[in-house]
Amino acid sequence: MCIRDSDKAVQFLPDAILLDMMMPEKDGLEVCRELRSRTSTQNIPVILLTARADEETKLKALDAGANDFLAKPFSLTEMHIRLKNLVDLYEHQRQLGRQKQILESTLEQLKETETQLVQSEKMASLGKLAAGIIHEINNPLNFSKSGIYMLKQFRGSFEAEDQSDFDDVLKDIQEGIERVIGIVSDLRGFSHPDVGLMKEASVESMITSTLRLLSNEWKDKVDIEVDIESGLVFEANANQISQVLINLVQNAIDATGRKTYGDDEKPRIDITGTTRDDQTVILIRDNGPGISEEHLGRIFDPFFTTRDVGEGVGLGLSICYKIIERHAGHVDVRTEFGKFCEFELAFPKFALAEAVPQE
């Protein structure tokens, strides 16, 4: 299309524009600048026609936003070829733009889906923890209620020699209520959306919380030995690291349940926390059946699982891996099939990564 006014280009939105440098009212350079200033026309290819072919004129044309120029007199064949090349390039760019929009939209949908899957995985874990939580809450509440009943029965009748028993009952009530508060706090921290900042987190506290939430899964079934270096801390989003620990310990418990033990061996999990090379290291080792060589390289792949249908979607370890990676940490797995499996988590003492929202 050959035009003299940018308004026409806005009206028709041509595939390409021919502009003469010398035109009445406005010259080609001025119209070209107007085209480039408007959103709807800023990417349309422009060829400037000029009777002057000196370098200064060429530079002015390019500076005004022209894609190409032709010096008069010119060949119609050359003009057609140049127009075709520019139109083809323009169409290709538009297709790339549309594909980019589609990809960006798809990426946003994938991120949203991932967030939903992460939350679903957490909710599935919460369902598994529910029985243990109810059990843990009921016990302290029962002896708290019994203590309160005793106080009501004997209120005002305590002799001096009974003061010790009275203090013991009050202590039981206080400890029971504190246990309930702790359990509810653990559950709230685990289920809350992961928007927490990176701050100093106690390894011992996170392990204690993990074992308390999973108590119904392992008590009277698995021997768990904990050896955490005193005062061991590192900068982390404690909610997310707790999610990792719960997943790994739950997997270890499940693993010990899939192995038949002899008389000289019992199901066992060892949890160790220590410092090594200025890193905080957490090891979780079980004496279950281990991981076969064929599966070892795939355990962190999304949706990979060896469990039966309905027992998990295979996102647990994949999510753990991403959380560890975002904390600038790394995870190593050591295993001997039929004998043991050990996960080693290593984190820098101080946060090297950004704050850790779940994507």
Distance between the termini: 48 Å
Strand adjacency order, main sheet: 5-7-8-10-9
Sheet of most strands:
5 strands, mixed
What is the level-2 CATH architecture name of the domain at 194-359?
2-Layer Sandwich
Secondary structure: helix percent = 40-55%
**Outline, from the CA principal axes?**
elongated
User: What is the CATH homology-level superfamily of the domain at 194-359?
Assistant: Histidine kinase-like ATPase, C-terminal domain
Low-confidence stretches: 309-314, 353-359
Q: The CATH topology of the domain at 194-359, please?
A: Heat Shock Protein 90
Query: Quick check: average pLDDT?
Result: 80
Level-1 CATH class name of the domain at 194-359: Alpha Beta
Give an overview of the whole structure.
By secondary structure, this protein is α/β, with parallel strands linked by helices. Among the domains are: 6-74, 3-Layer(aba) Sandwich (Rossmann fold); 194-359, Histidine kinase-like ATPase, C-terminal domain (Heat Shock Protein 90), CATH 3.30.565. 51% of the residues lie in helices and 17% in strands. It has helices at residues 6-12, 28-37, 55-64, 76-154, 163-191, 203-213, 215-218, 238-256, 293-296, 316-326, and strands at 17-20, 46-50, 68-71, 199-202, 223-228, 233-236, 268-276, 279-286, 330-336, 340-348. The strands form 3 sheets. A 5-stranded mixed sheet has the order 5-7-8-10-9, with helices on one face. The longest helix is centred in the N-terminal third of the chain and has 79 residues, at 76-154. It is elongated and about 115 Å long. The model is unreliable at 309-314 and 353-359 (pLDDT under 50).
